Amino acid sequence: MSSAASGYDADRPVARGHRARNDGATGYDVAVIGAGIVGAAIARALSRDGARVVVLERSAAASGTSGQGEGNLLVSDKAPGHELDLALHANRRWVDLSEELADELGPDFPNIEFERKGGLVVATTDAGARPLEDFARSQAEAGVDAQIIDVSEALRLEPDVNPAITAAVAYPQDSQVQPVIATEALLASARRAGADVRCGIEVLGGIFAGSAPGSAATPSSPGTADRGEHRRLTGVQTTAGAVTASTVINAAGPWAGEVAQRLGAPLPVRPRRGVVLVTTRMPHRIFRKVYDGDYFGATQSNDAALQTSSVIESTASGTVLIGSSREQIGFDTRLRAEVIREIAAKSTRVFPFLRDASVMRAYGGFRPFMPDHLPVIGPDHRLEGLWHATGHEGAGIGLSVSTADLVSDIYAGRTPGLDAEAFSVARPSLAAALETEEAAA
Amino acid sequence: MSIVVIGAGPAGLAAARSALRAGADVTLLDSSDQLGGQFWRHLPETSRAAKQHVLHHKWSTFEALASEITQHPRCTIVTSAQVWLLEQRDQGTPRVHAHVGPVDSGGRESLTLEPDALILATGAHDRTLPFSGWTLPGVYTAGAAQAIAKSERIALGSRVVVAGAGPFLLPVAQSLALTGARVRGVYEATTLPALARGWGAKPWKLGAAVGKMPELAGYVASHVRHSIPYLTGRAVVEAHGTDRVEAVTIARVDENWAPIAGSETKIEADAVCVSHGFTPRLELAIAAGCSIGPDRFVEVDARQRTSTRGVYAVGELTGIAGADAALAEGEIAGHFAARGPRSAAVSRAARSRDRFVDFGVRLDAVHAPRRGWTHWLRDDTVVCRCEEVTRGELDSIRSQTASCGLRSLKLSTRAGLGICQGRICGRSVEELLGDNFADGVPTDRRPIVSPVRIGDLAGQALGGSQPDERSPEEPPPQ
Ligand SMILES: Cc1cc2nc3c(=O)[nH]c(=O)nc-3n(C[C@H](O)[C@H](O)[C@H](O)COP(=O)(O)OP(=O)(O)OC[C@H]3O[C@@H](n4cnc5c(N)ncnc54)[C@H](O)[C@@H]3O)c2cc1C
Q: What is the pTM of this model?
């Protein structure tokens, strides 16, 4: 490996804070692909640790999934396990993070709207009551503040909820942020720590050690040079030329599968469509994040067919958000009446008064979906220099901060506060899917 | 052959008639409770005024179109039909979803259509540039003012100011004058040299569009008759008043529409009507997947076909070129959508369309807003009325986040997120924020085309419930 090709100088002292704009010719320590919330959180964490970071975004910041969904930071919908560990970690971290960002960026920066408003999960059928309560008990054992409450208590908390609900669990920890502002705030903070954020630049392929600078790997023949031992990723080819970096982090959300493919290390990330409805403004009648227990079925399932659940909440501006559907239909953005109708119908089951509300807007995006329902975070054992931070499905806003913590711990050689093995590409639960993916590539 | 036409203005009516004549079954949908669109807005049958023909240009054309269509056995007319979604299908023309009935009523009837061809004739809405005080009562869009004048015959005020840009200001002033309002003046922002250059370039091309001239000449004559001053290179830069408008400040503007310091004069006014041209209603065309050109009109071929199979676009969706162009485009689209053969009549329509479009597009270009208008805003001027976002907030958030995305800026400033969904402020917000966005997301996309009641949606969900106070599958808890 030549240091000219990698642009990486191991002896260069790593400085903190502002530094001269780096045009990439001398190389970065880290190139983050994707300026969604995950890429933004990582860029911030690593540049604050002193790394020279560039974020490469083919469109604009938060233009992908992070700008197309909601900003729930939920613990209520997660079963005990590794994802819940990430969520509990995130639940604590967002409290500090929102303050740190506000202090750092000042009062003129728009507020990221962090709020611990709490969740209320209800069952709308007799059959759904018991599973909901059992689920809550298992969560409580894993450290979640899950309070099984009477229907009458639920009605006191949410007077307009359907009085025919059969069970209710309150989750005081459930919180939210405004995902787009949070992404921009993380990026602004990263910039202050010296990161470059470059929009309108698409990553096309990898640059590998041993190959002449400028010779990109094409998707069909990944990594032409040094195919055998110690092939190492030393940067990326982009629509604006080569960018060298000793570590490349794939944070391309639902497109991370495509990016991984371009870099020669296929990853089974799939898009899972979700649509959210927004009503016209109305007086405030919903106080928490309220949803029915059906939601668990939707999040925990691999079924490709349409599933909807009714996560309903009021926003500060007076609109009500109702979302969202889950569907595996590829990157198909066409809006379907069936989806809208089903989301609408389920919302009235939880809040009957919504029948008279009007939907004025719908938007949607593609959750980055992994076959074993866990994000992939950390180095890829198959290709030195390549890391991933993706596959958070419907929880990437909340989990972005945990992901950044884990990435920066591994990068700095600290003992991670989270179980790195559980999220590694090499984990057993992903092996079969990886094999299929590689065979197809 | 079944054809759905959306929009019953000149373009839509002409399309429906020519499709019927070519043998198709036609369903004509319009959100209003009567035919005619904005151009032929009129009173209900019962109170029709004798002066209808004076207030309405080409009234006889309207009567002929409307009577042929309404009496036609193969035509179904559905008024008060709000199309809320166009659903693209893997095969076939997009599916049309509408609710029929008064907008605010519950239990509207749902209508789903799967036509062989779809003709979009959804027209345009007024564009009004913001200025300080434009949210005061007494400030109208010129379109709204004209609608009030045409359908209610109410004089808007005794001292009315008409301002903005474009030939539309003339008929607006005329309509107002005919209802007895005293129009103090028409203030056109385009400067005289720019007007002369625009109208003067290649005059032989305009010569052919003479059909348009008598109309304009008529407006000008009416101006003179009502002795309304017509002043160019001037703009209303501020409206004053506490509970309603009492006065306006008018300033001279340069070629780029930037106000010239020291040129301001304040005049008393009790009504202000402003129009800065038109913005096509693109949401249905975008929902149908039609490609939109760099000028932000729907791209069509010589037969008015869009890039989406089976979908045609006519009238102001394809360019702001006036009623004659719209009539010709409608005739062509209706004919070809119904698979009519080539004919002399259609060729004639095509020739007249080409002339009028050429004329209209040039006119529109001459009067199109120039970016200097942003200089008449103050920091506290509201730009997005629904969400009350000021110019200062837009600037501050843009510089704070250094965002390169329009979508991101919309979501962090909330501009364009209110009930009008950016129809009023969208393009102004874009122009204020600059146009080098990496995501290039225009503010025209509105997949839900009009607000739709959740109860009306829920009633039709597959396996959906009509929840009374409980879910129907389950017996009440004991
Ligand atoms: C309807 C819906 C509701 C949701 N609700 C919630 C919620 O309430 N709470 C929650 O936590 N999560 C929610 N999510 C999930 C959450 O939005 C995602 O998990 C999260 O946004 C993923 O962030 P990301 O940064 O990984 O991906 P993204 O935000 O998609 O960012 C990836 C970026 O990579 C860029 N990119 C792709 N390819 C390239 C390339 N070749 N070169 C350069 N750049 C590239 C893209 O343009 C994009 O900007 C929801 C998602 C949806 C769709």
A: 0.90
